[in-house]
Structure formats: structure tokens, C-alpha cells
Amino acid sequence: MSDAALPNAGPAAGPPVRRAAPRGSLIGQIFEGLCFAAATTLLLSLGGIIVSLVIGGWPALSKFGLGFLFSTAWNPVTDVYGAAGPIVGTLITAAVALIIALPIAGGVAFFLTELCPAPLRRPIGTAVELLAGIPSIVYGMWGLFVFAPLFARWIQLPLMSAAKPGSLLESLTTGIPNGSGILPASIILAIMILPFMAATLRELLLTVPAAVRESAYGLGATTAEVVLSVTLPYVRQGAIGAVMLGLGRALGETMAVTFIIGNSHTFPKSMFDSGSTIASTIANEFTEATSPIHTAALISLGLVLFLITFVVLGLARLLLRQQGAKL
Amino acid sequence: MLKTLGAAIGAALILGAATTATAAGTISGAGATFPAPVYNKWAEAYKAQTQTTLNYQPIGSGGGIKQIEASTVDFGASDKPLNLQDQQANGLVMFPTVVGGIVPVMNLPGFKPGQIKLTGPQLADIYRGAIKKWDDPLLAKTNPGLKLPNLPITVVHRSDGSGTTFLFTSFLSLQAEHWAKEVGANDSVQWPVGLGGKGNDGVAAFVKQTPGSIGYVEYIFAAQNAMTYALMQDKAGQFIAPTAASFKAAAANAKWTSAPGFYLLLLDQPGANAWPITGATFILMHAKQTDAAKGDEVLKFFDWAYKNGDADADKLFYVPLPANVKDMIRKSWSKIVGPDGKPVYK
Amino acid sequence: MSAAKLVRRRVSDIAFKIFCVGVTALALVALAAILWSLLAQGFGGLDLDVFTMSTPAAGSRGGLANAIVGSIEMCLLAMVIALTIGVLAGTWLAEYGGRSPYGAVVRFLNDVLLSAPSILVGLFVYELLVAPFHGFSGFAGAVALALLAVPVITRTTEDVLLLQSATLREAGVALGAPFSYVVRQIIWRSARGGLLTGALLAFARISGETAPLLFTALNNQFFNKPWFDLRQQTANLPVVIFNGALSAYDDLRRLAWAGALLIAVTVLAVTIVARIVAQEQKRS
Fold this sequence. Notes:
The complex is a heterotrimer.
Chain A: H1 16-20, H2 22-64, E1 74-75, E2 80-81, H3 84-115, H4 118-133, H5 136-162, H6 168-173, H7 182-206, H8 210-218, H9 223-234, H10 236-252, H11 255-258, H12 278-285, H13 292-326
Antiparallel strand pairs in A: 1-2
Helix pairs in contact in A: 2-13, 3-7, 3-10, 4-7, 5-7, 7-10, 8-9, 10-13, 12-13
Chain B: H1 2-17, E1 26-31, H2 36-50, E2 53-58, H3 61-70, E3 75-78, H4 84-89, E4 92-106, E5 117-118, H5 120-128, H6 137-142, E6 154-158, H7 163-175, H8 177-182, E7 195-197, H9 199-209, E8 213-218, H10 219-224, E9 228-229, E10 231-233, E11 239-240, H11 244-253, E12 278-286, H12 292-308, H13 310-315, E13 319-320, H14 323-332
Parallel strand pairs in B: 1-2, 1-3, 5-10, 6-7, 6-8
Antiparallel strand pairs in B: 3-12, 4-8, 4-9, 4-12, 4-13, 10-11
Helix pairs in contact in B: 5-7
Chain C: H1 3-42, H2 48-52, H3 65-96, H4 101-114, H5 118-130, H6 138-162, H7 166-174, H8 179-190, H9 192-207, H10 211-215, H11 237-245, H12 250-283
Helix pairs in contact in C: 1-12, 3-6, 3-9, 4-6, 5-6, 6-9, 7-8, 9-12, 11-12
């Protein structure tokens, strides 16, 4: 309370905040300084991580050069490595997971804020958040022991037998029908990132002032129209943030994916074929890697993942700025 | 709120300010996953007897080698042995502790464990993708009278690096020249065909779920999961079943005396009833210990384990070393010296 | 408005509502399926030993006591560090420097850090706090977890603070309060629900993280001596689960699943309790 200062009664002359400043200014400056320091710490830690990755990955980077990004070789015996397979796997699984999870997260958030009867709101909301609290290794094991056989039986086998030889469907579904592959891994990933996005979206939707929603309803808009045309654009900035949260998790997730993706370092030939992601490759091989080049190659993979994240996030921001300019 | 946070951070910084410490009477080790259960078992019993705490953590053979080189642990453990040159280059001493076996397992509905007979070259051809179906005439040669089904062979291998893979691929390299040339041996290789399962469990799960599949797992996984295994042909042409007895035979017949630095892969060992895909697991320590007392503690633990740990190892499906090898190991400990140059083990 | 258009709007509204209900049901079904597996596998492993004895070797009697204590110690320390840095950084982005070029850089890099695979963060902390000191420590584990939690908290803090109405700020400043006071006592208070969600999401994220702990705190078969000394290798639930879940021995597997169940239940309990506390505060 010590830095609260009531203004003098009567018309103010000049900028009021500055006149009332003296007693609180030190605390204000310290506070602002602390906030700035925190933000800079964030910067420094990321910088530190990238520096340590470059140092650690240098032997491989200097040996393979830019070709590292385009080669699908991965031979620990001859020490020749290429990142193309894991890169493609990472991008595909993250994209598919996002495509699956985003509408569901949106639907859940809309349900909880607009359609859900009040007494059910808290339990269902907490239940969805509980999905976030389950350790990722449980997702991996559940995926392998429970989901994979079911997926094989109810989705893979029917699709594969229904596909006529030479059709597009057939080329999309070739593979061993045992429930592992790119698509099952993406689905598990989608379940994992769902709660983060749903919880954040719901929190954002709750901040929309009642006046805005009510005025839309008052104009005769249906629920769908209010949600999609009024509240969602209102929280658009934050909604992008929620998507970033989900995307971030999807790009970097290790345990859940590595059990069920089949782990082959070549390009996947179909949705049911095995692939690998950068995170799963690092997790699988790092602790056992003995040759310095192998270790360096894995660290370089990590660096590549950071690069991918930079590019993807940069693109997203560009898109956002363009959209904003249009409005 | 800020005040409480500030106090908490201050406490945290004080906690972390001192360098990391290990409590007295504690020794730490890290490395191979394969022997972790038996090391932990020994540690439990050892603590009950002597109050010394041994903390062993499975982080992988590569991790074990890295961490002992970085001196973040008192000893490292590896399924993949270092040859004498590498040992000396890094100032390390190596010795084996227990032995285990790797078993090819398969999913062939209607066939019992031990019915199928395989040779090393056949296994290599299967894993190369040269033999694609179970009713291939090459397989029928060693299995006359058995009607093998017309199923495609789904090859399952490890996706994560592992000493198990190292041993298995070393065996295939030994048995088939084209494997040695095309693929080679390492804890992680570029597999020509097949699916990658994570861990022994992942491989076992894929094999169990996919009819017509074949994989390789540590003996205990084959036993615990009651999987269908194959008999493998040994050097003499006999088909051997994977059992604790056949692993022991492989370890007993091995020529440890002609293995400098104990670098020996127990593959295709001579003698009756020796399982051809056997391997030991190893401990790595610094030849020059910075803390003589700690080095002595570690060696005292292993000495105790050699004397008293066999029963526990057996129960957990491991194979203890023969007594003469243990004596050889104890003699080799004179190479581990303290800062004063004197052997730490008394 | 034509009748056809009205019908179209109504139909799409109903379709939308069905979609929302449907996907929520789908999410709940997925949750139920996973929880069912967790319970089926883990419940059998829960008994008094789990809370009183240290992690056992295969075939011996034991529990998860040291792992539970270690995880709590490290998660608490990590949350303290992460909340401090995260809330302050998010506040800076929302209230002070967010619109400057430097702020844009910080925001962007925060999102990048968010996507960092946890194993790489663990590696970084290993190089910083483990290798130079020649030993694994619970403190390094807490720092690694904090690094994972900070971006989540920063992100949600900034988003939530930005959505607080401008009138709130203007009212505070117009009353003559210094800006830092406005931020702390007014904006933070009104955004409390959102800040809490961010903290809970971060806690949920780090409670189950294995990879970073593998390089920092490693694990411990026994308790630390003394139990709160985080300068030694510290037992923790995620690594115990990781080691035990793929083990060949049934009793270790059961213990691992019991540990996983414990984590999920703890996250649920903390979420519920925190929300209740927030409700109470709002009312008073």
C-alpha cells in the first residue's frame, strides 16, 4: 500500500501519473527491471541452448555440410548420417496431429463455454485438462499395447483390403498392418496436444466481455455465428498462442511417438508406413551412441529441429501479420 | 507474493551454490540397461550388509562410457566391450560381471518353442530381406518335415541403440560375409528391412502382434513372455536351445586368458551345448583413481558380488561367470591405482 | 432474410453444436480409455509399501517413496523458478516492452523454446550443471524442468494479461497508482484464473518429463542422504516409470504403472485444489 498515492483533488495540470510518481518510482523501476531481467533470462537460456547445440553438433555439421539436411542415409557403422527422414517425419506428424487436434480443441472449448450446462462445466473441463497430466510415456505404452492393435484391426485392415490395386487409396495405405506408422503416431500426438490447446482456448474465450457476446446474440445470431464470427476473432491473437503451444508440443514430443512410429530413417511411403521424428531419433539413440560423429549427428538433428521451429513459427507470424493488415 | 518468491529463490540458490556432493559411503555407477536389474539387486543386499549405498542407473552402454569418461560416476557399465587400445587411450580398465543370451523369437501360429531350427547364415538372410517367406526352400533345409506357412516374414529389430543389437549384429557379421560388408555390427545399424520396436519390450510386442514376424530379444523377455524361439546351430553343427545352461556353457568354454583387457565376445563358442549368441556385460573404471578409498569401495562391492551374488543372478535369469574367470578378474584389479600409484584394492 | 437462408443458418448452427458435443465426447472417450489402462495396470500395484519403501530391485519388496519425495522436491523447486521468471517475463511482454523489436524477439524465441524437445534442454543443463561439477544432481534436474515450464507460463501469462480490459489499467492509473502497482495489484489479480491455468499446464507438463531428468538428476535407488539434499542424484517418478515400464519383471512393471497413476492423480488433485482455492479467493 505504501506506493499508492492519491492525486490532489481538483483539475489536474500536466500528466497526472508523472506528478504522483516519486514515492512509487523506485519500486516501479525495480519491478520493471525485474520483468526485463526475466525476459532477458529467457533469451539467454535459449541462446545458451543453441550455442551448446552448435558446439556439440559441429563435428557432424562440418563433416556433412548442407547435404546433411537432404540425405536419408543413417548408418552408425560407417558413420554416415542424414537428417531428411526424421525431418519429413517430424513435419508430417506435427501437421497431421495439429489438423486433428485443432478442431477438436476448438470444439471442446466452444462446448465448455457456450453449450455445456453449468454444473457439468467444471468436471468436464478438469477431465480434459487431466489428459495433459498423464505422463507421456503412458501415452506411448497405451499407444503400443492398446491403440495399435485396435487401429490395425478396425482401421488399417479394412482400408487396406478396400483399396483397389493401383488406386490412390492403395498407395496411401501400404504398409504392415500392425498398428504402427505415421498416422497412428500422429493420432496419439493429437490426443497429447489436445488438452493444452483446449484449456488455453477456453481460458481465452472466457475473457470475452459478456457485452460483446450478448450484443451478437441480441442481433439474432445463432450460437455458431456468435462463436465463429465474434468471439473467436476477438481472441485471435491468443488463439494463435494456443496453437503455438500445441504445435510446440507436437514438434518436440518424444516418448509418445517413439513407441508407435516404427522408427525407420527413410521417407515414409504411406500413412501406415514407418517413419521417424527428430525427437524420437535423438531419444532412441543418444544414450547408446558411442562414436563422436554419431553423437554430433544427433545433436545436429536437435539444431535442425530448432531451425524448423524457427521457420514454422516465423511463417505463422507472417501469415498473422498479413491477416491483421487485411482487417 | 513477491517476497515469498524471493525467499524461495534465495533458498534455491544457496542449495545449488555448493558443488554437487555425494554422501559418504555412496558409490555411483551408470550404463548398460541389460544388467541393471541384477546390479540393483546386489546393491540392495550389499546395503543391508554393509551400509554402503551403490546407486546404479541404466542409461545405456554409450551413456555408461561417456559418463565414466566425464567422471560423473564412479564406474560405467557397457554391453559393448572396449578393446584394449580404446581402454588404454581413455585410461580405463574393463572387466566382465555377468553373462546373458539373445534369442530369436517368432510369431508362427501353430508352432511350439524350439520346433524351428535356424542357422546363422539363414538368420542373416532373413534380416537382409533375402529370405522373404517362411516356406522358402532355404529354411526347409534345416526343418525337414515341418510344414512352414506361406506367410511373409516381417522382420522386427530395435529402434533404439542397444548392446543387444550390438551382440546380434556381431553374430550376423560373423556368420555371413555379406552382412558384415553391407550392414556391419554396432549398437545401432542401418537395417535393410523391417520395423523398429523400442526396447526389448517393443520388439516383443510387435512380434506378438504380427503373425509371421521374427525378432530378437534378451533371454528373459523370451522366457517371461513365453515366446516361440528357434534353435540355433552352433559351430559343431548341432542345434542348441537357449537356456541358462547353454549360456553358461558358452561362458565356461570361452578363452578368457587370451583376451587382453577381457575383450571377448562370447559368440559361437566351442564346446558342447554352447548357445551361439551369448555375451558378457562389462564394467569400466579409471585406471588412475582420484579417490583411492572410493575405488576400493567399488572393487569391494564387485568382490562381494562375485562371492555372494550368484544366487540372485540366477533367479533373475542371468548367468554368473565361472570361478576361474572371477579369479582372473580379481588379479587384474591390481592395475587400478590411486593417486599414490598403489593399487586401491586390498 | 429469405426463409432458405434462415434454414441454412439454423442447420449450420445445429451441425456446429453437434460437432462440439461430438468432439468433446470423443476427447472424453480417449481420456477414459487411457485412464482405464492406467487404472487397470497401476491400481494393482498401489499399496502401503508404495508410500513407505524405496524403489526395489526385481523380486524384492519395495515402493516409490524416494521417487515420490524426489519428484515433489524437484517439481516444486522448478515451479518456483519457472513461475518467477515466467510471470515476470510474460508481464514484461504484455505491459512494458512487448511492442518493441526486442519484445518481438523475446516473444518469438519464447515460442521456439516452447517447442524445444525436452531431451535437448536436458543436454544443455548437463553441459552447464552436471559435467563441470562431475556429478548428477537434483538441483540440475529442477533447473531443466524449470526451463521447460517457463515458456508455457510466459506464453499464457502474456496472452491472458493482454486480454484484460484497458479500462482496468486506465482506471488504476487515473487513480494515481504507479504503473507497477496497477500491474501487480489490479491486472495480476483480475487475470488470476488465467495465470493459474498457465501454472497448472506447466506443472502438468513437467510432472511427467523423463528425458531431461535422465541427463541431470538421473535417478537414485535409495533416498538422498539427507532426504532434502538436492546436490546428489535424486530419485524421481518419471525415470522410475521409464525404467520399469519396459522391464521384463512383472513386479517392476506394476510399480511403474502405479507410479504413472500417481502422477496423473496428483496432477488432477493439484488442478482441482488450485481451482477451488482460486474460487474461494475470488469470493472473499
